[in-house]
Amino acid sequence: MSRNPDLSRRTLLATIGAGGVAALLPGCRSAVEQADGAGAPTPGGVLRIAQAADISPKTLLSQNNPNMAVCRTVFNTLFEYDHRTLAAKPGLAESFQLADNGATVTLKLRHGVTFHSGRPFGAKDVLFTLEHLRKDTTSSQLKHVARAVADASATGDGEVRLRFDHPVSNLFDLFEIMLILDSESIGDLEKGSKLIGTGPYKVDSYTPGSGLKLSRNEKYFKRTYLDGVDISIVTQSSSMLSSLKSGQTHLALDMAPLDAASVRTDPAYELVVADPHDSTFYVASNVKVAPLDRKEVRQAIAWAIDRERVLKQVLGGIGSTSSLPWSPSSPAYDKAAAGRYHYDPARAKQLIAQSGAAGAHLDVVYNAGLATNAAIAEIVQYNLKEAGLDAAAVPLQAADFQGKLTSGALPGLFVNGHGFGHLNPATLVKGAFPFNADRNASNFDSAEYRQLADTLWKSTDDGARRAAAAKVNAFLLDEQFVSDLVVSAHTYAITRKVRGLAWSMFDYLNLDETYLVGGRP
Question: Are strands 46-51 and 251-253 parallel, antiparallel or unpaired?
Fold first, then answer.
């Protein structure tokens, strides 16, 4: 049992293997490093953020890119991973105690915390959020962990005990992503009319399609510097870049990679590359659509795609090519296996001919609202035509694409992005929709795969986890219902006025220590 507020990497990742923690990329600095050389932090000023898409209040409990500026700004989680050690640092919980071989955890909660409404935070809020997450109508990639809770109760003043049906290796992934919600305003939260959390900044106004205005939470349990935060919705990446360079914006979230790369050479700005490396681009197959029902064809597609071209031409060199979904920080990462598939059009053409699929028509579907995905789809289409398939890039509007994705109704191949390849492997194979062994966007179903996923999730035996991880890698490389292309990263393009910027291991902006050089005008 442990009451140490820092959770060792060995405990956290359940000793699945000796994986290295990813180092910061060149140009990516921690909050402390960003503050160096700028003198003492200066209070005041409003941080102006631009992002491409409007927030989605109903999906706050899942990782959803449009919410990354508000999740950790308006809300808090129970624990937060240290990026270098992956130790669990206190959030709304100050310490934990494990028992029953990890199947029971007792959390000691932070005292003196209040919601933006003034109501005190306590054990009932943790229990409410957990129960809300378990609902069918709540979106979350960590729902499987919440549903494994057999009993949840308040066991004392500011204390919660959770007992699971079995040990879960990715418990602290849940604690990192689960925003603690205000039970009294949950209906208004889902409608977007009230967003009430415990975080450093409170929402003063939200105009759907336009943006949000936030002001400092004077009762926050940590010191902060900014007077407020303005978040604007700017749908065109080129407009985000113009806004940044004109001084209207201090921080642009996830600009199109080539626009973001253009900032690198300008000394007035900095392109900060998030170290979790959990933005992976892929092409996947609906295995119910011929000829994608044959793994030989899916393997041929994996050989056909020019990953290096995707990396350089579309992503501006941000990331690395890979045949597997894992970031180097994942204990399931295997460098040799990640390099399995590479651009080999002759081999792809031969496999397609041998499988009898030459000339077969395939739609390559993508979200028309995402310029990056559109550019990748064009490359995929070209490469597949080289390999002997009649491929056609098919744009769908965002709502149509998402609806068909979640219902498994995309009519062939589809280009998209995924996360969750950077922490515990169980989270990807049990929760990330492209790979979920229980139900996924490809309609891929395998008892063997489900068993491997469950072993990664439930087993307390080190050797069993290591073996399962290696088998998962071999299985994914063989079946190719998802063909990963490039493991990339989220980016924050900032002016040199911004200091102390940080983010969670799920890339949620953390503005606790952020300030503007010069402070209040």
Answer: parallel
Q: Rounded mean pLDDT of 160-169?
A: 96
In this predicted structure, the answer to whether residue 273 has a pLDDT above a threshold of 50 is yes
pLDDT tens digits for 59-112?
999 998 899 999 999 999 999 999 999 999 999 999 999 999 999 999 999 999
For the beta carbon of residue 187, count every other beta carbon within 10 angstroms. 9
What is the spatial distance between Cα 479 and Cα 490, in angstroms, rounded to a whole number? Answer: 28
> Of the candidates 477, 406, 470, which has an alpha carbon nearest to the alpha carbon of residue 436?
406
The pLDDT of residue 131 is above 90: yes
> CB–CB of 189/196 below 8 Å?
yes
The answer to whether residue 4 scores a pLDDT higher than 70 is: no
Contact at 8 Å (CB) between 172 and 81?
A: yes
**pTM for this model (two decimals):** 0.90
Q: Which residue has the tokens 């600095």?
A: 29
Give the phi and the psi of residue 171 in degrees, each rounded to 5: -60, -45
| Closest by CA position to 283, among listed 192, 410, 110 | 410
Three-state helix/strand/coil letters over 266-319: CCCEEEEECCCCCEEEEEEECCCCCCCCCHHHHHHHHHHCCHHHHHHHHCCCCC
Angle between helices 295-304 and 345-354 (to 10 degrees): 160
Burial status of residue 431 (CB atoms within 10 A of its CB: 0-12, 13-18, 19 or more) = buried
Q: Which tokens in the block code for residue 60? A: 């706050």
- What is residue 39's predicted lDDT score, i.e. its pLDDT? 72
Alpha-carbon distances, residue 233 vs 206, 209, 261 (angstroms): 11, 6, 21
Asked if residues 435 and 429 have their Cβ atoms less than 8 Å apart, the reply is yes
Q: Quick one: pLDDT at residue 1?
A: 40
Cis check: omega of the bond before 395, within 30 degrees of 0 = no
| DSSP type of residue 119 | P
pLDDT in tens, 404-453: 998 999 999 999 999 999 999 999 999 999 999 999 999 999 999 999 99
Q: How far apart are CA 237 and CA 252, in angstroms?
A: 9
CA distances from 280 to 116, 256, 445 (A): 35, 15, 22
The pLDDT confidence band at residue 20, using thresholds 50, 70 and 90, is very low
> 52 near 365, Cβ under 8 Å?
no
% of the chain surpassing 70 pLDDT: 92
The alpha carbon torsion through 376, 381, 386, 387 (nearest 10 deg) reads 100
For range 105-129, the mean pLDDT: 97
Would you report the helix, strand and coil content of the chain in percent, each value rounded to 5? 30, 25, 45
Neighbour-count burial of 3, counting CB atoms closer than 10 A to its CB (0-12 exposed, 13-18 middle, 19+ buried)? exposed
Strand partners, 499: 515
SS (H, E, C) 396-414: ECHHHHHHHHHHCCCCEEE
Question: Which uninterrupted H or E stretch holds 390?
Answer: strand 390-396
Structure tokens at 336: 């040799």
